[in-house]
Amino acid sequence: MPILSQPAFGPKLSIAFITGGALIDVWVLVWRYTIAPSELSPTQKFMFWGLLLTGATFLIIGAFLGSIGRAARKAEMPPTDEVTRAEAAVQANAAANPVTAPAMVAPGVAGVAPAPMMPPAGVVPTTAVLPSAGS
After folding, report:
1. Whole-angstrom Cα distance, residue 61 to residue 121?
2. For residues 118-131, average pLDDT
3. Taking the alpha carbons of 67, 71, 76, 78 in that order, is the dihedral positive or negative?
4. Over the range 65-98, which residues count as b (16 or more CB within 10 Å of their CB) and which as e?
5. What is the DSSP letter of 4?
6. Could you give the CA distance from residue 88 to residue 85 in angstroms, rounded to a whole number?
7. Whole-angstrom Cα distance, residue 9 to residue 21?
8. Closest to 15 in 3D by CA, of 54, 56, 51, 69
9. What is the pTM of this model?
10. pLDDT one-digit tens code per residue, 26-79
C-alpha cells in the first residue's frame, strides 16, 4: 500500500481558488469597461468593488494554499536515507553512552537522616491543652 494513497488536497483547492478569483475579477472588469455606465450609482459601486475585492481575495487565498499544500506534501513524504542514517547514529551514540541519574533514596534508609518538620511561616508552635474530663 503506497504511503501517499490520499495526497494533500491543498494544490487542487489552490487551483480552484485562483481560477475562481481570476474569473470573478475578469468578468467584473469586463462589465465595468464595456456595458457599465460611466457614472456608477452607489449600489453599482458597491457591487463592483465588492466583487473585485472578492476575486482578489480568492487569488491571495489560492496563492497561500498552494505553498501550504506543497509544504504538506513534503511533510507527508517518508524521511530520506540521510535523515534515517543521522537518526540511527544519534540513537547508537545514546545507547553507547547512557546517562545515569543519581539513585533515589527513600527517607529513613541507613545513612540518611530524615529532614526535620518545620511549621509553616508565621505560625507559632503550641502544645494542645486537652480539657479535663471532670469539668
Report:
1. 60
2. 66
3. positive
4. bbeebeeeeeeeeeeeeeeeeeeeeeeeeeeeee
5. T
6. 5
7. 18
8. 69
9. 0.50
10. 999 999 999 999 999 999 999 999 999 999 999 999 888 877 777 777 777 777
Q: Which three cell numbers stand for residue 70?
A: 506543497
CA 99, CA 95: separation in Å to the nearest integer? 9
DSSP assigned state of 5: S
Please list the alpha-helical segments (H only) found in the chain. 10-34, 42-76, 81-96
In one-letter notation, the amino acid at residue 113 is A
- Give me the residue label for grid cell 540518611: 112
Contact in structure between 105 and 112 (CB atoms under 8 Å): yes
Contact (Cβ atoms closer than 8 angstroms) between residue 55 and residue 22: yes
Contact assessment for residue 21 and residue 52, using Cβ atoms and an 8 Å cutoff: no
* CA–CA distance, 26 with 45 (Å, rounded to integer): 16
**Looking up cell 486537652, which residue turns up?**
130
CB 69 within 8 A of CB 14: yes
Residue with the three cell numbers 458597491: 46
Check if the beta carbon of residue 17 is closer than 8 Å to that of residue 62: yes
In the chain, what are the domain boundaries?
A: 10-82
Give the separation between CA 60 and CA 69, rounded to whole angstroms: 14
